[in-house]
Design goal:
The complex is a heterotrimer of chains A (about 210), B (about 725) and C (about 190). Chain A contains 6 helices and 9 strands. By secondary structure, chain A is of the alpha+beta class. Chain B is built from 20 helices and 26 strands. In chain B, strands 6-5-17-16-15-7-8 form a 7-stranded mixed β-sheet, with helices on one face. Chain B has a 6-stranded mixed β-barrel with strand order 21-25-22-24-23-26. In chain B, strand 10, helix 6 and strand 11 form a beta-alpha-beta unit. In chain B, helix 8 packs parallel to helix 11 and helix 9 crosses helix 10. The chains are: A alpha+beta (about 210), B alpha/beta (about 725), C mainly alpha (about 190). Strand 6 of chain A pairs antiparallel with strand 1 of chain C.
């Protein structure tokens, strides 16, 4: 989660705002408890923007700041955003965050900021972009080297940091990619699938649960 | 502006250097000519080593240009510098295989922290007042030299440091040794010394173990949060991830009374009476052994029925799990954390080692190994002084050097470290921050941050290969700080009776060390941050038959009468802060705890029945009292904890520790009773009993990320 | 009567606004980095799209250097490989001017900055406001053989760089459309 903050210039809101539910964790880990002591079980679930193909956040945006790109990402264009927050209202996964204040970094913490990513100001919505800056950079590099992007060229910050390699990112349209292969697994399911949002993130259930 | 309200800014406040808008900017700071050739916008990747815990993960650091506001020759201005921007794990490193834990990711904030000590400081007010004034390095070094020269008894110089194997620590130890002072006091709150003793006894290795989880079929962890904070977490995560990703997915059984991060990922979670883990291990070994050709006679008394009486785990379960261990191979057991922090911790560690021998797990695929170790560069032994004894005698010392440790915070009040420090005539601190310990210093000589200096570590576990980490600085020092080993070398040379260390600089020592490893070993330092190679199978002296620990030490002791103090107290290493040494990093304060989603606060985890009995609801303020004192914090009602235990994460509760951590939350270590493990003298931090009382309504001090529109932490999922 | 009062007030407000914009402000000593505007004047200027022309400390003659067959990339080095063209350091100037034309008064000024270890305080001519959230990357444009002059004007005719081309979004999008370059919002705004 901190890898995401470091990569994407996510502001640290502080205890007062965090207490008001305004902490901005583009990626969060949820926990689902089963049973009661002593027969307790726990499941962790990392949740980020699902980049839904039928995203409910897109039709409600009055300025086209939230829209779907041809590559399948749900784009959040900060300079179009006027801060109605309707997209967050519509999002069933609760993965959209609003900048209620101008973020602040006591110097020299700002030296860590990633120049490849915008620093958002007050009044705009932000959310996980699947590290679009890394996707864009990889595409530019591939074009410069006159080749196609291959599986593994782009790693989102979260997938790169995860010590257990629990997160896998890639091109769903490439049937040979690891992510396409894993998404076809019978263990796979999607979050809130019945809402019809067509999310793109597939969650693989634990095998052989006793 | 109030320091903590750093977010409440409206449309008009300060902004940064000129390049944000074209034309006539608001202000233009003088721009100094850079020291390096700056290539704007193009990243370099440089190797480094993470210093935060003893795992010694290899880093690769993204370095880009950034503007740094500084003053030169009395003029305020800005200069472009090569700055670290992001830390990533190094893909080929034998310990972390490209991964990095959350604390390692946040470590970059150590370099850019607004409250770093930026120049040497001398105390101007009373001890502990935090009043310091800057002094120049020459004056600071002269002061230290003069204080050292003044010591009539050279053995009254003491140094407290982290007991992490590294050449840096060897340099410090060599300085002390040649000065005539005792070995450094190795202080680390969660050190697992007990496990080292058990491994030394049974395997001839005074070392923490390394596990080949990737090939294990069945893993039983006795209290070790091996995916969270214990031993070499990233390496263990990598192995565990492989274990789960295989076709024949391995099984994890976690035995503990409070669900840890690792317990959350377990297939089977078994609570056990605190301090009886070793008995359970021997019970399982009994079952395994009884199914073998020659059952061990020494294990005969550990029948499932007998073990049930002591541990609270049902006999049928012990039979079944023992049966699985006998059949499903490779199987391996590990023990760490709370299970060792009892007065009979060594018993448990030896018991688990016995189980591993019965499982045939020692130095077998899927089992227990030891990372090849490098011999010390020093002539004498590398042993450090045990903190439990030495810190009690601290007040007898005349001069104490504190090398970036915080024993005032990290040890129980009952050890009286603060009082001992008060009596010491002169205290020097090398850390980069003013914390509960360094606020008492007379002289602060700030070290560089790890990205700004040579850094090294010799991981004692987490790798099957030999690993020697060392890396050059990734960026120039931002402030007027100096590398501590180099400061010691300089001080040594200036003493009346000089301490002549065999190396002129710290990196010279590192080079000498690497040259011993091989002709091209030093190239590895510049290229990848260290040298690693497959090493010949390391020696283990194994005893023929399992060494059964003394049954008399089966039952632990606890502080506090069971009727007055009915609950066991468990302070645990938190995922965000580990032992609290990184509580001052804002990213970690805002990180939702994996088990509770709590941020920026302390909490106590209480079982629902226990909470109901005391009429405690989530968020209510609870007072926890031991025989040593009490702390107050909000309650978190958790299904994953036994009714007779309450657990508090370690990390908050600093009195002094930068704007982000000072005066925040409560420190559970403070109220621990000074219980010690019987054989090693290590702090038995799970041996304190407490009582709890509801003292107030919920007052928003429990800050959770979950809840409301996000997942309800208390809703049961039955899908 | 009331209307005049309002007019007077409006004038006063406008005057103070202009005054706020025009006043020289002291160097930034804020201890916090934030995307907020530092003063009301700055915010107002941004709102009204006021971008005064750059005032350079030294009248750097692009045309003289280009006439001497210098390439753009000799000083703006990284433009082929990375996102930033950059304003070169005085160290770059001194590579040649430690020996060339050292008797000229302007070169002496340049040298004096270099000796003091201070960069020449160039003012940026081309750029985007922070709030435009543009992540412009030079390298793909150079690789696509877009001429520097297409976006920066014919510098062979200029001394200091002038804002010869107005970098509106329409300017960028038109060229992208004509040259079949990606036109998605996320191409530039992220």
């Amino acid at each position: 989660m901190t890898a995401c903050h470091a990569e994407n210039n996510i502001p640290t809101v502080g205890p007062a705002q965090a207490a008001r539910g305004r902490a901005m964790h583009w990626l969060r880990v949820e926990r689902y408890w089963e049973g009661e002591f002593p027969d307790v079980r726990l499941k962790f679930r990392p949740v980020m923007c699902q980049q839904c193909d039928a995203a409910p956040c897109e039709p409600v945006c009055p300025t086209y700041a939230s829209h779907h790109t041809a590559e399948g990402l749900n784009a959040q264009v900060y300079n179009r955003c006027i801060g109605t927050r309707y997209c967050a209202n519509a999002c069933p996964y609760n993965v959209r965050f609003f900048d209620f204040f101008n973020p602040a970094w006591p110097k020299p913490l700002d030296m860590q900021l990633n120049p490849d990513v915008s620093v958002r100001e007050v009044g705009v919505m932000e959310k996980c972009t699947f590290c679009v800056q890394r996707i864009s950079a990889a595409q530019i590099d591939a074009k410069a080297e006159k080749r196609e992007l291959k599986d593994g060229d782009v790693k989102t910050a979260c997938a790169q940091a995860c010590p257990a390699k629990a997160l896998v990112f890639g091109d769903l349209n490439d049937p040979e990619s690891e992510v396409a292969r894993l998404s076809r697994s019978p263990r796979g399911s999607k979050l809130l699938e019945d809402l019809g949002t067509l999310p793109k993130v597939t969650y693989l259930a634990r095998q052989g649960d006793a | 502006m109030e320091r903590r309200d750093f977010i409440k800014l409206t449309a008009v406040t300060g902004t940064t250097a000129a390049l944000t808008a074209c034309g006539n900017p608001e202000h233009q700071l003088i721009r100094f000519v850079p020291d390096d050739d700056i290539v704007p916008g193009i990243a370099e990747w440089k190797p480094s080593v993470c210093p935060l815990c003893r795992a010694g993960c290899g880093l690769t650091v993204r370095v880009l240009d950034a503007d740094f506001e500084t003053t030169r020759k009395g003029q305020a201005g800005v200069v472009a510098v090569k700055a670290a921007k992001k830390l990533e794990g190094q893909p080929a490193h034998p310990v972390n295989h490209g991964g990095l834990c959350v604390r390692g990711q946040a470590a970059i904030q150590l370099t850019y922290h607004p409250d770093r000590i930026t120049t040497p400081l001398k105390r101007t007010g009373p001890r502990g007042s935090g009043e310091f004034a800057p002094i120049a390095w020459d004056a600071a070094i002269a002061e230290l030299v003069s204080q050292l020269d003044r010591l009539t008894d050279r053995a009254s110089l003491a140094c407290i440091a982290r007991p992490r194997r590294s050449r840096r620590l060897e340099l410090v130890a060599e300085f002390l040794s040649r000065f005539g002072a005792p070995a450094p006091i190795g202080f680390e709150t969660f050190d697992d010394e007990v496990l080292r003793r058990a491994n030394s006894t049974m395997f001839g290795r005074d070392q923490l173990p390394t596990f080949d989880l990737a090939r294990a079929e069945l893993v039983v962890s006795f209290g070790a949060d091996f995916l969270g904070t214990w031993n070499s977490p990233v390496s263990q995560n990598a192995g565990f991830g492989e274990m789960r990703g295989r076709r024949s997915r391995g099984k994890l059984v976690q035995i503990e009374s409070r669900m840890s991060l690792s317990g959350g990922s377990a297939d089977e979670w078994i609570p056990v009476n605190p301090g009886t883990e070793g008995v359970l291990a021997l019970g399982l070994a009994h079952v395994v052994s009884s199914k073998s050709a020659k059952p061990a006679a020494a294990l005969a008394e550990y029948t499932p029925a007998a073990v049930e009486k002591i541990t609270g785990v049902r006999a049928a379960r012990i039979e079944r799990l023992g049966g699985e261990l006998a059949e499903r191979r490779p199987a391996v057991a590990m023990i760490g954390g709370p299970a060792l922090a009892h007065t009979n911790g060594l018993f448990h560690a030896l018991a688990v080692n016995t189980l591993n021998v019965a499982l045939g797990a020692v130095q077998q695929p899927g089992g227990l190994f030891f990372t090849p170790e490098l011999p010390s560069l020093r002539a004498g032994s590398g042993a450090l002084t045990r903190p439990s004894a030495a810190l009690k005698n601290l007040s007898a010392q005349a001069l104490v050097l504190v090398d970036d440790v915080n024993p005032v915070f990290g040890s129980p009040r009952a050890w009286h470290v603060a009082e001992a420090l008060a009596k010491i005539p002169f205290i020097v601190s090398f850390g980069s921050f003013i914390d509960d310990t360094s606020v008492n210093a007379d002289l602060l000589l700030p070290d560089h941050s790890f990205l700004e200096s040579w850094t090294d570590s010799l991981p004692e576990s987490g790798s099957l290969e030999l690993v020697a980490n060392a890396a050059p600085p990734v960026m120039r020092p931002l402030h007027d700080t100096r590398s501590t080993p180099d400061v010691l070398i300089e001080v040594g040379g200036k003493l009346k009776t000089p301490v002549a260390l065999p190396w002129k600089t710290y990196d010279e020592m590192l080079k000498a060390s690497f040259d011993k490893l091989g002709a091209n070993a030093w190239d590895g330092v510049e290229k990848q941050g260290g040298f690693w190679s497959a090493a010949p199978e390391s020696r283990i002296t194994l005893h023929e038959s399992p060494r059964i620990p003394n049954p008399e030490s089966q039952i632990p002791n606890f502080d506090g009468d069971a009727s007055a103090y009915p609950l066991h107290f468990l302070p645990y290493a938190s995922q965000a802060f580990n032992d609290g040494s990184v509580a001052h990093l804002p990213w970690l304060q805002e990180l939702p705890d994996p088990l509770t989603s709590a941020m920026w606060c302390s909490w106590v985890e209480i079982n629902p029945q226990t909470a109901a009995a005391k009429k405690i609801a989530e968020g209510d303020i609870v007072e926890i009292s031991s025989t040593q004192g009490s702390i107050r914090l909000p309650a978190f009602v958790s299904p994953g904890i036994a009714p007779n235990i309450v657990a508090v994460p370690v990390g908050q509760g600093h009195g002094v520790f930068t704007q982000f951590a000072s005066g925040r939350g409560a420190n559970p270590i403070a109220i621990l009773a000074p219980m010690a493990e019987a054989e090693t003298g290590a702090l038995a931090w799970a041996a304190t009993r407490v009582k709890i009382e509801r003292v107030g309504d919920a007052n928003r001090s429990l800050i959770l990320f979950a809840g409301e529109m996000r997942e309800n932490p208390h809703e049961n999922e039955t899908r | 009567m009331a209307r005049r009062a309002v007019a007077v007030l409006a004038c006063a407000l406008a005057v103070s606004l202009v005054w706020a914009c025009a006043s020289e402000l002291s160097p930034d000593s804020s201890s916090v980095f934030t995307p907020a505007h530092r003063t009301f004047g700055a915010a107002a200027r941004h709102f009204f799209n006021v971008h005064p022309a750059a005032q350079q400390p030294i009248q750097f003659p692009h045309k003289i250097h280009l006439a001497k067959e210098a390439q753009c990339t000799d000083c703006h080095e990284t433009v082929e490989r990375g996102p930033v063209a950059g304003i070169p350091s005085v160290k770059t100037c001194m590579i040649c001017h430690s020996q060339i034309a050292t008797d000229r008064p302007l070169i002496k000024e340049v040298t004096s900055y270099s000796e003091k270890g201070i960069e020449i305080p160039w003012q940026r001519v081309y750029g985007f406001t922070h709030e435009a959230h543009v992540r412009f990357n030079h390298a793909p444009h150079i690789r696509a053989k877009v001429d520097c002059a297409a976006c920066h004007g014919n510098l062979a005719t200029m001394t200091v760089a002038e804002r010869a081309v107005d970098h509106t979004m329409g300017f960028c999008v038109n060229c992208h459309r004509q040259n079949k370059a990606p036109n998605d919002c996320l191409t530039c705004h992220f």
